[in-house]
Amino acid sequence: MERGNERGSAVVEFALVLPLILVMSLAIVQIGLLVKDQVLVGEAARAGAREASVNADDEQVRQAVASAAVGLDGTKLGVTIAREGGAGSAVTVTVDYQAPVDIPLVTWLFPGSVNLRGTAVMRQETG
Description:
With about 130 residues, this protein is α+β, with helices and mostly antiparallel strands. Helices cover about 50% and strands about 25% of the residues. The protein has one domain (about 1-125).
């Protein structure tokens, strides 16, 4: 008779712990998505700096950033280009992105969006 009672208490304990495990698992998935977006932002900044090092046209640099930011919402992407001088000097490309928090049930754990920033510096070959 005691085994039946133990089985019932195990089911109750599982039912109490399951929501916590679910929320923690979804929070880990959301953090993973934010890390993925940060990697993409860094890669986009590097692609922009590479383009800026060989091309003085800032619009083409922005297009290179947008092309490298595959999977990110282009409307939430900001690009800043800072040139220090002519050939041989540094050019800095900074990419800002407002990453959304999309996973249901964990939106209360995170802000509405997370600001991600990637910066890359390369030496200009032109200018």
